[in-house]
């Protein structure tokens, strides 16, 4: 009986975890107007992988991604061309939460904008 209760408790915890895997469309309001991104998340245990598209440089791969229940965090690297035509790499960190079909993320880009954060809201599309 004790084993059955433990198994039921483990299943309940697994069922309560957010369904993060899939495609999400998100928007952020910025001083330069709205920005849109598509996040494709793949989950393996507590490891988060995938890609982010809609960036100036096209698509970026998710690195160092983690899932903890309905919380997620990950980084991306963006290759940008500055005004002199030189390529440079910018890192962006995302942290947030999934609640049902709703996604809420905060992103921060190292350097350049002094660590300014951007709030993203999105919906799961598949």
Please name the defining characteristics of this protein:
single chain; 126 residues; mainly beta; Lipocalin; 63% strand
What does this structure look like?
The relative contact order is 0.19. The chain is built from one helix and nine strands. An eight-stranded antiparallel barrel has the order 1-2-3-5-6-7-8-9. Residues 11-16 have low confidence and may be disordered. With 126 residues, it is mainly beta. The protein has one domain (19-124): Lipocalin (Beta Barrel), CATH 2.40.128. The protein has one helix spanning 2-16, and strands at 22-30, 33-44, 47-55, 58-61, 63-68, 71-81, 87-99, 102-109, 117-124. It is globular, with a radius of gyration of 17 Å. It starts with a helix and ends with a strand.
Helix and strand topology:
Elements (H helix, E strand, L loop, with lengths): L1 H15 L5 E9 L2 E12 L2 E9 L2 E4 L1 E6 L2 E11 L5 E13 L2 E8 L7 E8 L2
